[in-house]
């Protein structure tokens, strides 16, 4: 009988402490889009989301890269709202050299308003020819 009570007491203690464990849902970013490969046509590995709210709401359906006549990198990102409500986010691009170090060329954060399930094309152009790669960042509007 004492053994059964001991087992029940241990099981109850484990049950109570298991309920106290919490998952950290406010971790630090950057986060990848949740459905990165479902409808993706182009490369989207250079697209990061800076908070979990953006990860839930935003995805990138394609990135297009080209070099302008004067050697500067130009990017067009297709940003999609995954929700059935209008949302407002901020988006920026950091241009980097071939070794993925920042060239100091960073666009200011710009506000992007997306209707429900809407997709918008956002264009970024590097200010110098040193840029060979990039990272597009998206966060909740502040």
UniProtKB/TrEMBL annotation:
Protein name in UniProt: DUF1425 domain-containing protein
Pfam families listed in its UniProt record: DUF1425
Assigned keywords, A-Z: Signal
Signal peptide (from-to): 1-18
Keyword Signal (UniProt): yes
Domain of life per record: Bacteria
Entries under InterPro entries matching the protein: DUF1425, YcfL-like_sf
């Amino acid at each position: 009988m004492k053994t059964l009570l001991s087992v029940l007491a241990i099981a109850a203690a484990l049950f109570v402490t298991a309920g106290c464990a919490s998952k950290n849902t406010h971790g630090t970013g950057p986060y990848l889009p949740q459905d990165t490969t479902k409808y993706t046509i182009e490369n989207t590995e250079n697209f990061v989301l800076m908070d979990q709210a953006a990860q839930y709401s935003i995805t990138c359906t394609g990135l297009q890269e080209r070099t302008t006549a004067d050697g500067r990198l130009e990017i067009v990102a297709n940003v999609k709202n995954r929700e059935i409500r209008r949302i407002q986010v901020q988006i920026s691009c950091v241009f980097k050299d071939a070794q993925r170090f920042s060239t100091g060329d960073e666009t200011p954060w710009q506000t992007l308003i997306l209707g429900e399930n809407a997709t918008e094309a956002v264009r970024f152009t590097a200010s110098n020819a040193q840029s060979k790669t990039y990272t597009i960042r998206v966060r909740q509007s502040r």
